[in-house]
Design a protein that fits this description.
single chain; 179 residues; mainly alpha; Helix Hairpins; two-stranded antiparallel ribbon; 3 helices
Length: 179
């Protein structure tokens, strides 16, 4: 059976507590050879236990270093993904804005063309003005709707990016807590 440091220290303490007490002060008599034997055993055990503790410390440092490397990789990947998502959102928004402007220009052009055609006669002119105003108003409403839809789309895309970043941040914090 292998003795451990704590057991040997307990044995030393017991020897001192149970030793022959002196009449003067708090002195105790114990067997010299018994004490030296325990001290030799401690000398044999302590280096092994210290090496085990040092190995454990080194292993824990390796785990911590690996976790830090992994956390850095996760952050880097999240940053790249966020950059890609933002770039796609900007591209989509630009395409939607261009389409909206093209459609609005076509509607306005059509309205102006109709207005020109209706101006030919007096009664026709009055009706044409009314219809042209309605067309222009509808065109402006449609352009406003398109702009609102574009803003909503951008808000959704940016919210998605924010969610991805929040989840990544949360995963990093969970990984840190797990260390």
């Amino acid at each position: 059976m292998e003795l451990h440091t704590i057991e040997l220290l307990d044995e030393l303490e017991s020897m001192i507590e149970n030793g022959k007490k002196s009449l003067i002060g708090g002195r105790v008599s114990v067997e010299k050879n018994d004490l030296l034997t325990i001290i030799d055993k401690l000398r044999d055990i302590l280096p092994r236990e210290m090496m085990h503790a040092n190995d454990f410390y080194n292993d824990s440092r390796d785990v911590l270093d690996a976790a830090n490397v992994q956390a850095d990789e996760i952050i880097e990947n999240a940053d790249k993904e966020a950059d890609k998502t933002i770039a796609r959102a900007h591209e989509d928004a630009a395409a939607i804005r261009d389409d909206a402007n093209t459609e609005a220009d076509a509607i306005v052009k059509e309205a102006l063309q109709k207005q020109s055609e209706l101006v030919a006669a007096h009664e026709v002119t009055r009706l044409a003005n009314q219809e042209a105003q309605q067309i222009v108003m509808k065109a402006e409403q449609r352009a406003t709707e398109i702009k609102i839809a574009t803003k909503k789309y951008l808000d959704e895309k940016l919210s998605n990016v924010a969610d991805v970043l929040a989840r990544t941040y949360s995963e990093i914090n969970e990984n840190k807590k797990g260390l």
